[in-house]
Amino acid sequence: MTATHWVTRVLSALLAIALLLGSLLVVVEIVAAAFGRPPRLVPYPEWTSWLRSHSWNDWIVDSILVGFVVVGLLLLLLAFRRGKPATLSLAGRMPGVKVTASRRSVEKSLAAAASRTTGVAGATASVGRRTARIEARTVTRSEPDLRKEVESAVKARLDSLGLERPLRTRVNLSTKNAR
Amino acid sequence: MSARGNVANRIVLAVLGLLLLAAGGLGLALSVGTFGAWRATYPVLPEEVRTFPDERPWFWWAVAGALLLIAVLALLWLLTQLKTDRTTRLDRTTDARDGYTTLHAGALTKAVEDDAIGIPGVTKASAHVHDHRWQELSLRVDLADSADIGAVRARLENAVVAHLREGVSDSSFPVSIELRPGGQ
Hints:
The complex is a heterodimer of chains A (179) and B (184). With 179 residues, chain A is α+β, with helices and mostly antiparallel strands. Chain A folds into 2 domains: 3-80, no CATH class; 88-178, GMP Synthetase, Chain A, domain 3, CATH 3.30.300.30. Helices cover 52% and strands 18% of the residues of chain A. Chain A has 5 helices and 5 strands. In chain A, the strands form 2 sheets. A 3-stranded mixed sheet of chain A has the order 3-4-5. A two-stranded antiparallel sheet of chain A has the order 1-2. With 184 residues, chain B is an alpha+beta fold. Chain B folds into 2 domains: 3-82, no CATH class; 89-181, 2-Layer Sandwich (GMP Synthetase, Chain A, domain 3). In chain B, helix 6 (149-167) links the parallel strand 5 (135-143) and strand 6. The interface between A and B is large, with 66 and 72 residues. Strand 2 of chain A pairs parallel with strand 6 (175-181) of chain B.
């Protein structure tokens, strides 16, 4: 599960609880009002008078409406965001067998492959749908072929995986002292 | 969580997002006078709207009915978050007239895990049977950094999957394998 999936799931659970409790609360108030009982948990007479005393161009109303728009856009963003893939498909060999590699493990593996290159003190990797980005920290500045060596180590690791859609590789080198 | 649950979440979030966006957008349009400058100074709850239910006793009961429907849908949405498509049994009945054959998924997954962990380079294996549109075994395999991924994959496909399919007497039983080089 990716971070986007977790956020979507937690938010969905919270919204579902809010909708469930909110709806039932209002139903209870409607039934209570039908029997002539005063409001218990929802102070709707106050809310009604507030809505009657404020016009559309009041700043407070506008602020609430802007809030609606912002929250609406955030929900839409979450609903349509693809995010990084949780797994990467590997080329199929056997019918009925789907093989994938988890993205996080591929990132860890690529970082390890890059770190093993001579002259590299450490590396991190980030894998998206199309590109693998490697941030490698070098010990010395004057290593003209180092980028190629790192790239070649990362490509060899990716080739050994046999991904269905090959990834482009981007390697960034930085000196250890610069950090 | 099932894949269907994820789709349901995205659909409901998109619907709620569109509703909020539409409500906020229309309100702001009213506020800036898009529908007439006079409307911008109108109260948010005009008198005619406030008194609308007074002559219509059914109105609040209709609202209560709609809210109950929303509450039921919200409960179903909440239950979707807890649902999983994992199953504990595999129905291997070929002809009901000859009797029913059920295989405990736990026995099958244990055998698959034991088979997979015996492959050099595999540090951990966990298997589950899922029942979504069809039954499928999913196998998650953690690999050591030094593991030869190609060789491990070949062993998994040629030995582990073959044994599994032999065990369930189905040469095309769907299998999903997740390799985790570096074990994460």
